Amino acid sequence: MLKKFQRWKKEEQIGERPLSDRKKELLNYEIPNHIAIIMDGNGRWAQKRSLPRIMGHHEGMKVVRRITKVANELGVKALTLYAFSTENWKRPKMEVDFLMKLPEEFLGTFLPELIEENVQVRIMGNKDELPSHTLRAVEKAMNETKNNTGLILNFALNYGSRYEMVEGIKKIIADYEQNNLKLDDINEDCFSSYLMSKELPDPDLLIRTSGELRLSNFMLWQLAYTEFWFTDTLWPDFGEEDFVEAIEDFQNRGRRFGGI
Ligand code: IPE
Ligand code: IPE
Ligand code: MG
């Protein structure tokens, strides 16, 4: 228990310690099993540079690659990335179309590397509404990485937590009506097993970039006891150093889960 309490003095953190040392040091403490990230601020990043918003999304894609690599190196088991919410369809068609092409571009470029690094690609979200070209690209990646045993890279694509829960409840009722489930079987673990994240543990750490302090319909059930970490940095500017800092802060938290 002691190791998680006051990992070091804050002053040391401010000192110029090389990132490689900080990364090594992380391994002496608890590495979060599951990290979830709300990758926000792509549009503002582009607007600040007088570029079209989609350029921010394109830049953000490169950050996904970098952070996946570091997470895998550090031995994180699962990384869930909020890529497109059920509410993001409200955006202009041109932006939505661009976002729906990004998985193909990302996987077209990086899938060989992900395979080599033993990463398993997954998606969580309403697949029915995705354009067929988007679904094809992610299904190919899932298929080609399904026997890998390293980091689970889970994209929340057309994901909304309320949708997920309502769908879960409908499936519970269907199973109940078909006598596959008894009323007494329904408990918290059972409910979790009806969610799209059923194969993953709840996130230990949630990161949101761009200074917004809200969940925007992301994993409302699963984040019940997750540690939150917010930064003003916009997603395309988010680097390895920010990721390491988030984990350092996580290692300094005293998680109590309601106990003392
Ligand atoms: C996050 O960046 C990416 C998606 C929601 C797809 P935004 O596009 O939300 O960027 P801002 O918040 O407008 O700056
Ligand atoms: C949340 O960001 C969704 C993703 C990062 C994919 P938004 O930019 O859509 O969230 P709001 O609208 O600011 O709450
Ligand atoms: Mg946003």
From TrEMBL:
Entry annotated with the keyword Transferase: yes
Active site: 40, 88 (proton acceptor)
Cofactor: Mg(2+)
UniProt xrefs under PROSITE patterns: UPP_SYNTHASE
Record's keyword terms, sorted: Magnesium, Metal-binding, Transferase
EC top class named in words: transferase
Chain ranges passing through the membrane: none
InterPro entries in alphabetical order: UPP_synth-like (IPR001441), UPP_synth-like_CS (IPR018520), UPP_synth-like_sf (IPR036424)
Superkingdom, natural source: Bacteria
EC number: 2.5.1.-
Cofactor binding comment, as recorded: Binds 2 magnesium ions per subunit.
Binding site for substrate: 41-45, 53, 57, 85-87, 89, 91, 208, 214-216
Listed GO MF terms: transferase activity
Functional summary from the UniProt entry: Catalyzes the condensation of isopentenyl diphosphate (IPP) with allylic pyrophosphates generating different type of terpenoids.
Assembly mode: Homodimer.
Protein family (similarity comment): Belongs to the UPP synthase family.
Protein name per the record: Isoprenyl transferase
Organism: Bacillus songklensis
Lineage of producing organism: Bacteria, Bacillati, Bacillota, Bacilli, Bacillales
